[in-house]
């Protein structure tokens, strides 16, 4: 289990994904975008809108079940991206780099971009926006909802 959480709102994810698009603009154009599903789908859609990319491919890798890590399973390989040359590969984050390693083997020439990166996965990413510590769990807006929180005074000072 992570020691702390970094909560990302829809607004922040949109801003951070646009910041990623700005950085990626400098080194395009790209033939198309490969999104690593499912977490990469929304950042990929935002980046695609900003870069005016219309060709979107997916690769599906399942590595986690909630916060438990398992063996990475490729449930759908990328059909149209060859060895990745000229393609932009997008995921929401790199943590241990396990998913990234599997996908990079399939698309060694793609430019790999994520919105967030933790130190262990960072060397595998070409472009990212925000680094968080390894013991932090990033809480994405699609995994969370607003709920009531008790006043501090009722927590017994803890
Ligand atoms: O660097 P790693 O340790 O491999 O972790 C990062 C990967 O884990 C999450 O995907 P997950 O397996 O939870 O699947 P999902 O995107 O379908 O939610 C996340 O979206 C990244 O793809
Ligand atoms: O929602 C998530 N937050 C994380 O920090 C993380 N690391 C791997 N997979 C993850 N999924
Ligand atoms: Mg994922």
TrEMBL record:
Domain (Phosphoribosyltransferase): residue spans on this chain: 9-147
Enzyme class, first EC level, given as a word: transferase
Gene name per UniProt: gpt
Sequence positions that bind guanine: 95, 138
SUPFAM superfamilies (alphabetical): PRTase-like
Binding site for 5-phospho-alpha-D-ribose 1-diphosphate: 38-39, 91-99
Pathway given in the UniProt record: Purine metabolism; GMP biosynthesis via salvage pathway; GMP from guanine: step 1/1; Purine metabolism; XMP biosynthesis via salvage pathway; XMP from xanthine: step 1/1
Protein name: Xanthine-guanine phosphoribosyltransferase
Essential cofactor(s): Mg(2+)
Residue numbers binding Mg(2+): 92
Lineage of the species this protein comes from: Bacteria, Pseudomonadati, Pseudomonadota, Alphaproteobacteria, Acetobacterales
Membrane topology label: Peripheral membrane protein
Family: Belongs to the purine/pyrimidine phosphoribosyltransferase family. XGPT subfamily.
Binding positions (GMP): 95-99, 137-138
Predominant place of localization: membrane
This protein's record includes keyword Cell division: no
Keyword Membrane: yes
Catalytic reactions of this protein: GMP + diphosphate = guanine + 5-phospho-alpha-D-ribose 1-diphosphate; IMP + diphosphate = hypoxanthine + 5-phospho-alpha-D-ribose 1-diphosphate; XMP + diphosphate = xanthine + 5-phospho-alpha-D-ribose 1-diphosphate
Enzyme Commission number(s) of this protein: 2.4.2.22
A GO molecular function held by the record: xanthine phosphoribosyltransferase activity
Purpose: Purine salvage pathway enzyme that catalyzes the transfer of the ribosyl-5-phosphate group from 5-phospho-alpha-D-ribose 1-diphosphate (PRPP) to the N9 position of the 6-oxopurines guanine and xanthine to form the corresponding ribonucleotides GMP (guanosine 5'-monophosphate) and XMP (xanthosine 5'-monophosphate), with the release of PPi. To a lesser extent, also acts on hypoxanthine.
Subunit structure: Homotetramer.
Alphabetical list of Pfam families matching this protein: Pribosyltran
Binding site for xanthine: 95, 138
Subcellular location field: Cell membrane
């Amino acid at each position: 289990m992570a020691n702390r959480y970094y909560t990302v709102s829809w607004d922040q994810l949109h801003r951070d994904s646009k910041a990623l698009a700005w950085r990626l603009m400098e080194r395009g154009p790209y033939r198309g975008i490969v999104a690593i599903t499912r977490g990469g789908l929304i950042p990929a859609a935002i980046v695609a809108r900003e870069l005016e990319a219309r060709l979107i491919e997916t690769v599906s890798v399942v590595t986690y079940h909630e916060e438990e890590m398992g063996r990475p399973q490729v449930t759908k390989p990328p059909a149209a991206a060859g060895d990745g040359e000229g393609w932009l590969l997008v995921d929401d984050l790199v943590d241990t780099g396990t998913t990234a390693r599997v996908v990079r083997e399939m698309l060694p020439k793609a430019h790999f971009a994520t919105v967030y990166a933790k130190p262990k996965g960072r060397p595998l990413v070409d472009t990212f926006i925000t680094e968080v510590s390894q013991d932090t769990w990033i809480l994405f807006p699609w995994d969370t909802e607003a709920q009531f929180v008790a006043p501090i005074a009722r927590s017994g000072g803890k």
